[in-house]
Amino acid sequence: MSATKRPRIGILTAGGDCPGINAAIRGVGKTAILEHGMEVVGISTGFLGLINQEYTILDENQLSGILTVGGTILGTSRENPFKKTNSFLSVDKPRLIKKHYKEMGLDALVCIGGNGTMRTAAHLAEEGLNVIGIPKTIDNDVWGTDVTFGFDSALWIATDAIDRLHTTANSHKRIMVIEVMGHHAGWLALYSGIAGGGDVILLPEIEFDIDIVAKCLKRRAINKKPYSIVVVAEGIPIKKGESAARYIGEAIKNKTGLETRETILGYIQRGGSPSPMDRVLATRFGAAAVELIASENYGQMVSLRGNQISSIPLSEVGGKLRLVPLDLPLIHKTRKMGVCFGDEPD
Ligand code: F6P
What we know:
By secondary structure, this protein is α/β, with parallel strands linked by helices. It folds into two domains: about 10-150 and about 275-315, Rossmann fold; about 155-270, Rossmann fold, CATH 3.40.50.460. About 40% of the residues lie in helices and about 15% in strands. It has a seven-stranded mixed beta sheet with strand order 3-2-1-4-5-10-11, sandwiched between helices. Strands 7-8-6-9 form a four-stranded parallel beta sheet, with helices on both faces. The longest helix has 22 residues, at about 150-170. It starts with 7 loop residues before the first strand and ends in a 10-residue tail after the last helix. 6-O-phosphono-beta-D-fructofuranose binds near residues 137, 138 and 270.
């Protein structure tokens, strides 16, 4: 970085939105401006903003009041500039991004996103840009960090929903099936299933047998349990295009004859104000990203290890998924407490 010009950091947010992104933007901005005298530029709509050179200067006014606001003030997209297209009209997006990065006078670029965004960030780092990744997603499936912000907020939302399903299930003596997000990972289903007192929890990582699920529910009915709660991750292996909750709900009805209803939580899990834990984690990640820039330690993703902020090379993160380990002690203990995961435990 040159000694005279104030260093200028670009921030973009990409992929599925989640609570906490604005807290991370604020953490980057306040640390950069107040502690390091840097300039901050907000890039619109993920990597599209770099391709189209759409950005605004972020100063303390823009950063004020956004800590508690859900979503992202910059907007987001799932644009992947490295995705190959056959169209003869396709432009060389990585070349455009490098050109605009220079024309915008950027000294570094902070990419806030999930595993797809970290993969793009890793490619841009290989192309010579000074890139730092900040992991966010309600799925909690980014490799290299124990937790992503967005997860705790979605966990609160899903758990509150499951709590509410207990009361209506009890009134009608029904089986209630609730589908939670998580993409290919089962973290949100596992944690909300435990927090919400689920009797059956189905994860993408554990191959389930619907007959085992039916047997468990029938046994609960025989033992005079008035109702059951079945928490299902959206990513369980079923026919493409079908909803996990509908598939499991239909199968339960057909195999047990028990009255069953389904709820798909969907995008509610990504909305609203971030939880306090997500606000703090996002703020910590934002500050850590600027420290990496100040020490010119580029090509890194900030991470949380235990309760320590750390970082990991983007080259080790890009495109990997952090799935629920089958030997997770929490799963073992939960089984011992009578929760069914749809399989025969070892
Ligand atoms: O990655 C977050 C997430 O909400 C996943 O849990 C979900 O499967 C996906 O995004 C939905 O993607 P979109 O917002 O593009 O519909």
